[in-house]
Design a protein that fits this description.
The protein is of the alpha/beta class and 399 residues long. The protein has 2 domains: 210 residues, TIM Barrel; 84 residues, no CATH class. Helix content is 42%, strand content 12%. It is built from 15 helices and 11 strands. The strands form 2 sheets. The chain has an 8-stranded parallel beta barrel with strand order 1-2-3-7-8-9-10-11, surrounded by 5 helices. Helix 6 packs parallel to helix 8. The N terminus is likely disordered.
């Protein structure tokens, strides 16, 4: 009964487009009480990095103690931990299947990580991909039978087949209310079971612009709407509905827990290709912090994507609501890259990450940076070591 009541409250909040009382001040801006003149730092720890550590109980604990030591050496204060990458779960969930790498362990990996990080003074953000189910196949028979997507496709109710979209992979359909409820229930479960400091989404929203991705849902919507939105605006409204509802769910549970999203670097591509209206999220206060993935160097061939131009654009965008923090996603994974457009700069320069971190600190409009990802940052390859040493010198410098 309590769960049903909470779902009803969230649905009402979603329909009203509301955020928690007192969250937004007059003029649509929240009071920002978390801004710091000194940029804080974080790191993403992906599902593949976690899975590679899950070989045995003691083996994982030994590996993760090294993670803690490494983070502290660079004064990294936050970890964005990938707990749901493919409609699955790093812990035993009522809604999602346990990741196979954690099966057979007699302890809770996620609980161990949260406790270890908090003991070390490191905050934990639970990182979720809300829609992605399977990218290696478009065949529903390749899904795990305990996956919500498999259950929807194989029950006796053809109506809920629309909850799953198949198009060069398998995804949950952003248009469907049942999908939003599943994502929100998953978030609520995390908050109830673990003392996390935040819930985090990355840039996986609509995987394609192809109209056939969600034809049945869109046609149903148009048949019931007097003045239906065009396909692109309708898709953006679906993503906005999820982001707004997730923010409300987090704040309903605890106003001090943060909801953050990490979109791709290009505002236009977010809007037109992923249907992620980041400007609306900022203006309306649907997020506590936006962390764009500015995974480009200072000398990128296309001027629009050079780091200094990107950070300037995002600072201007984030300034539309001073209650929303801006942190910058940085790319140690590009160190030593073979990419034609990146190769020269990222193979010859040993201080790109340090210079970008300094830019974040000195910009005046950025409150931190987050590094993708852990294994690249702490790689033993020579150039990675040099980049890390320069970053360490920066974080230990007084100015």
């Amino acid at each position: 009964m309590k769960k049903a009541l909470i779902c009803l409250c969230l649905s009402i909040c979603l329909l009203a487009g509301c955020v928690p009382e007192n969250a937004v001040s007059e003029g649509g801006k929240r009071e920002n009480t978390r801004y710091s003149d000194v940029a804080s730092s974080g790191v993403w720890l992906s599902y593949s990095e976690i899975n590679s550590m899950l070989k045995s109980e003691q083996g994982f604990k030994t590996e993760f103690s090294r993670v803690i030591e490494n983070l502290r050496s660079l004064k990294i204060e936050e970890i964005y931990l990938h707990i749901r990458a493919f409609c699955d779960s790093l812990f035993k969930s009522d809604y999602f299947p346990l990741v196979s790498a954690a099966e057979g362990l007699d302890y809770d990996v996620f609980e161990y990580i949260v406790d270890s990080c908090h003991t070390a003074g490191i905050k934990v953000h639970a990182w979720i991909n809300p829609y992605r189910v399977l990218t290696s196949s478009s065949n529903p028979e390749d899904l795990r039978q305990d996956s919500p997507a498999y259950k929807w496709l194989h029950d006796n109710d053809p109506e809920n087949d629309k909850n799953v979209a198949i198009c060069n992979g398998i995804y949950l359909n952003p248009a469907e209310q049942e999908v939003r409820e599943l994502v929100i229930n998953g978030i609520r479960e995390v908050l109830q079971k673990y003392k996390v400091d935040g819930i985090h989404f990355d840039d996986y929203f609509y995987p394609t612009t192809a109209p056939e991705f969600d034809t049945a849902s869109y046609e149903k919507y148009k048949s019931g709407a007097e003045n239906p939105l065009g396909l692109s605006d309708w898709r953006r409204s679906n993503v906005n509905a999820l982001i707004s509802a997730c923010y409300t769910a987090v704040k309903y549970y605890d106003k001090d827990i943060l909801f953050t999203v990490s979109p791709m670097a290009s505002v236009d591509k977010n809007y037109n290709e992923l249907y992620a209206d980041v400007s609306a999220w900022i203006k309306n206060g649907y997020v506590d912090c936006i962390i764009p993935q500015l995974y480009f160097g200072f000398d990128y061939p296309e001027p629009e994507f050079r780091f200094e131009n990107l950070i300037k654009k995002w600072i201007e965008l984030a300034a539309e609501n001073d209650g929303v923090e801006l942190k910058i996603g940085l790319a140690p994974y590009k160190i030593g890259t073979d990419s034609e457009q990146d190769r020269e700069e990222w193979n010859e320069s040993a201080d790109i990450i340090a210079r970008q971190a300094r830019k974040c600190r000195e910009s005046g409009g950025v409150s931190g940076y987050v590094l993708f990802s852990y294994s690249s940052l702490f790689s033993s390859n020579g150039l990675n070591v040099k980049q890390r040493e320069n970053l360490e010198n920066f974080v230990n410098s007084p100015d």
